[in-house]
Design goal:
The structure holds 3 protein chains of 3 kinds.
Chain A (H helix, E strand, L loop, with lengths): L1 H5 L1 H22 L4 H26 L2 E4 L6 E3 L5 E3 L3 E4 L1 H24 L6 H20 L3 H19 L8 H31 L4 H7 L4 H18 L7 H8 L2 H26 L5 H24 L4 H25 L4 H40 L15 H15 L5 H16 L1 H25 L16 H19 L1 H17 L1 H9 L3
Antiparallel strand pairs in A: 1-4, 2-3
Helix pairs in contact in A: 2-3, 2-5, 3-4, 3-5, 4-5, 4-11, 4-14, 4-18, 4-19, 5-6, 5-11, 6-7, 6-11, 7-9, 7-10, 8-20, 9-11, 10-11, 10-13, 11-13, 11-14, 12-13, 12-17, 13-14, 13-16, 13-17, 14-15, 14-16, 14-18, 14-19, 15-17, 15-18, 16-17, 16-18
Chain B lengths: L6 H23 L8 H23 L6 H21 L35 H36 L1
Chain C lengths: L4 H19 L3 H23 L21 H32 L13
Helix pairs in contact in C: 1-2, 2-3
Classes of the chains: A mainly alpha, B mainly alpha, C mainly alpha.
């Protein structure tokens, strides 16, 4: 048991990898058990992640050195530097890891029935597992080059998954091409920034770079590159063109994982700003840049969503708009980072709100995409104008849709309300206008989802959907789990914020802790 | 129409492709001593496959290069690689448990100018071989798939 | 001065890559543009590790008393080349699928997902 815990950082990343490589072999013997095999592996991963989370939240950050006990190398001159690949998991990393584990496990369960009729399932599952590996790696790694490798693993597998359904039409391939171009450019610019760091400081470990950061001209260039490309990968507004295409064309279960994958990029953005640079950068300027990106994302995302007719495209625009909330809260936290009074009075609360919103968004947006997938599974269309009266046939799906829509619109008993309230309150103290915009966007979100609910579920039974039934049990199970999480988080937000979100925020803010974990250990 | 190239190209290909594959495996096997390694050697060996496909067309090589077998080789390479990473779990993931142990690939390396001892490196040569198999098979599959697909697009261009 | 030429080449390669990405309408040319940026980034990494007059970092063949080139950037570049192969293969296969479905690889005509 304790050895599982010691090796848990590697196991969480390596189990899906092993399973991904075994998938073609298993698929050759028996196609029927393939889905169950994958679900079991991802369930095991989820279990280990939860164990690891308990360990980290009670005993502090965890370090895992690959390929040897000793992380560092001491030169004859006494200069010590970490040379091996290190996984460095603190409160924030494990917070994101939990989201990834839950979402990928539920995606596998949902795919059991949802993807049953498709061909090439071995490849689908192998890619799903690789995507999970890439996301875990991005969130756990403490080495900036290793981060680049996992970023590429995640993008390549997500591109292949987006384009998975291109046997019938060209649109998935088109969306995949767009996302491929975007993610290759981002990854290459990350690589260029890594070169800038390595050329100056001769290290690749993020904590070590942070401890020797001079904030020279080259560091500024690297910062601009990293902020630009990571916010592009996270789907914030000026660079959001890939989001609606990719989200709407991917299979529904994959869209849910893609949301978590863009949040992994968001996490990397926060990691760069807080752990790598912290107060050595001009926090007010960068903070306001992130705030402006956030406000633009919120507003443009929701206004574009209102006019959509395709249900998944509409939800994808809402995903952009919700990303804005996360950027807004963290941007406020970053803007007041150098000012301890403001940080304690509202900065930490704003960050707690938006970090909490990351998890909430992954849950309710995942649920909404799954209900959209359920509608597509039974009706064969994503066009809202062609749907109608489905509440009569699909009772549970309707309930789950109502829960998800209420959560995204911020209606009280659900989790979206809890995190949005924290953002409104704290941002109001920083700048009332921003808070008012955020509330306005929330109202527009509600309006848009009322429209979806009305056109898809309400109204008389349509002739062509007379025989539509409820979706299979595995899909219902995935949706029900997410709905339970949403309701529980909405009912007891204080417990979650205190035990899960607050450590994550403190891990981001406290840079000395982050560097000391690595540099103290060697 | 069999989509083959001229007699000169065919003769040269028949003579040379074996040597290219052997050279690829040489680079794979010496990955821990000289520049090169699994990926480079695998890519060299796969270039021999590319040569064959270009020369004889994908119909001409269908008895020689089979996608099924290549994907099996690919999975074998990948599983071998990750399995040796897991075997190190006694210490840490990816721990090189075979280095300096005296067994297979277990000699300790000699410092200084010397021709190099193949029997060193621990798990590194094994992982090189695993990566080499994976890369040559994967690139082979890519080449075959793309040549099959390009025939499809060519037809469209002509019509 | 002459030592800085590789950095100029890096700037030119990345500039050309972005030019190709922004102004060319052909999907294959977009793939070429990405490859150019990748070459620029790889060249940048390699140049960082180069020291004038030093030897390749192979311990069995290095003469006594000579400096070695820094091997870490070379390892990084190799990794990024391997990833680049996968990226290029994937992007070209997607371009092939698009051509198969749409009958064109001009970005102006490949636009069904527009709204």
């Amino acid at each position: 048991m304790s050895s599982i815990l010691t090796h848990s950082p590697a196991l969480v990343m390596a189990l899906p990898l092993l399973a991904a490589f075994l998938t073609p072999v298993v698929g050759r013997f028996n196609r029927k058990i393939l889905g169950w095999f994958i679900s079991a592996i991802l369930g095991l991963t989820l279990g280990i992640t939860i164990l690891m989370a308990i360990q980290i939240l009670t005993n502090g950050s965890m370090i895992y050195v690959f390929g040897g006990g000793d992380a560092g190398l001491t030169l004859p001159s006494g200069y010590t530097v970490p040379i091996r690949i290190i996984f460095h998991i603190d409160g924030m990393g494990i917070f994101m890891g939990l989201i990834t584990a839950v979402v990928s496990f539920l995606a596998a369960i949902y795919s059991l029935s949802f993807m049953q009729k498709e061909s090439g399932l071995e490849k689908y599952y192998a890619l799903l597992l690789l995507l999970a590996t890439g996301m875990f790696g991005m969130e756990f790694t403490g080495d900036i080059f290793n981060f680049f490798v996992f970023l590429e693993i995640a993008s390549i597998s997500s591109v292949a998954l987006i384009a998975f359904r291109s046997n019938f039409s060209g649109e998935p391939a088109e969306a995949g091409f767009k996302y491929m171009v975007v993610s290759s450019i981002s990854a290459l610019m990350v690589l260029f920034a890594i070169g800038l760091f390595y050329g100056q400081y001769d290290v690749l470990n993020m904590a070590t770079i942070a401890s020797v950061m001079q904030f020279t001209q080259l560091d500024k260039i690297a910062l601009i590159l990293l902020v630009t490309v990571l916010s592009m990968k996270a789907g914030s507004v000026p660079m959001h063109m890939w989001t609606p295409d990719a989200y709407s064309e991917a299979p529904a279960a994959i869209t849910m994982v893609l949301v978590a994958a863009s949040q992994a990029s968001l996490y990397a953005l926060f990691r760069v700003c807080f752990s790598l640079y912290n107060i050595s950068l001009n926090t007010v300027t960068i903070g306001w840049i992130i705030i402006i990106l956030g406000v633009l994302s919120m507003f443009i995302g929701v206004t574009m969503a209102i006019i959509q007719k395709d249900i998944k495209r509409l939800m994808a625009y809402h995903a952009i708009s919700q990303t804005g909330y996360m950027l807004l809260g963290v941007g406020v936290g970053l803007a007041v980072l150098a000012n301890p009074v403001a940080l304690n009075s509202f900065g930490i609360k704003a960050m707690e709100g938006s970090i909490f919103h990351i998890m909430n968004h992954a849950m309710y947006k995942g649920l909404l995409f799954l209900t959209a997938g359920a509608l597509f599974y039974r009706t064969g269309t994503r066009d809202l104008n062609k749907m109608g009266g489905l509440a009569n046939n699909m009772f549970y799906t309707t309930i789950f849709f109502i829960i998800g829509a209420a959560a995204i619109a911020g209606i009280p008993p659900f989790n979206g309300f809890a995190s949005k309230l924290m953002i409104y309150e704290s941002v109001y103290k920083f700048n009332p206008l921003l808070s008012i915009i955020a509330m306005l966007v929330s109202i527009l979100t509600l309006a848009s989802f009322v429209k979806v609910f009305h056109s898809a579920f309400l109204g008389p039974k349509l002739e062509q959907y007379k025989k539509v039934q409820e979706v299979p049990k595995s899909m219902l199970f995935a949706m029900a789990t997410l709905a339970c999480i949403i309701v529980l988080f909405g009912l007891f937000p204080d417990v979650i914020v205190k035990n899960l979100v607050h450590p994550a925020v403190m891990a981001l803010i406290n840079q000395t802790n982050y560097t000391a974990t690595i540099l103290g250990g060697i | 129409m069999k989509n083959e190239m001229s007699r000169i190209v065919r003769t040269v290909t028949t003579l040379i492709y074996g040597f290219i594959i052997v050279y690829g495996f040489y680079v794979i096997a010496h990955g821990h001593l000289t520049p090169g390694g699994g990926f480079q050697g695998g890519a060299i060996a796969a270039s021999a496959f590319a040569l064959l496909v270009v020369t004889y067309g994908d119909q001409g090589v269908k008895d020689f290069l089979k996608k099924d077998i290549l994907s099996l080789v690919e999975s074998t390479g990948l599983v071998l690689f990750i399995a040796f990473a897991f075997f190190g779990l006694g210490v840490t993931f990816f721990y090189n448990f075979m280095a300096n142990s005296g067994g297979l690939f277990g000699n300790s390396a000699i410092i200084g100018i010397n021709p190099g001892d193949l029997n060193t490196g621990g798990t590194i040569p094994i992982m090189n071989i695993a990566v080499g198999l994976e890369v040559l098979a994967a690139l082979g599959v890519i080449i075959l798939t793309m040549s099959a697909g390009s025939k499809n697009t060519k037809k469209k261009e002509n019509s | 001065m002459i030592g800085n030429f590789p950095y100029v080449a890096v700037a030119i390669l990345i500039g050309l890559g972005f030019y190709t990405l922004i102004f060319k309408k052909n999907l294959i040319k977009i793939a070429i543009g990405i490859t150019l940026i990748e070459c620029g980034a790889n060249l940048f990494l390699i140049t960082l590790g180069y020291r004038k007059g030093s030897v390749a970092p192979i311990y069995t063949q290095a003469p006594e008393g000579m400096n070695m080139v820094l091997p870490t950037p070379q390892a990084l570049t190799l990794t990024s080349i391997v990833i680049g192969v996968a990226t290029t293969a994937l992007i070209l296969s997607i371009a092939m699928i698009i051509y198969k479905k749409y009958g064109t690889i001009n970005t102006d005509e490949v636009r069904r997902l527009k709204e």
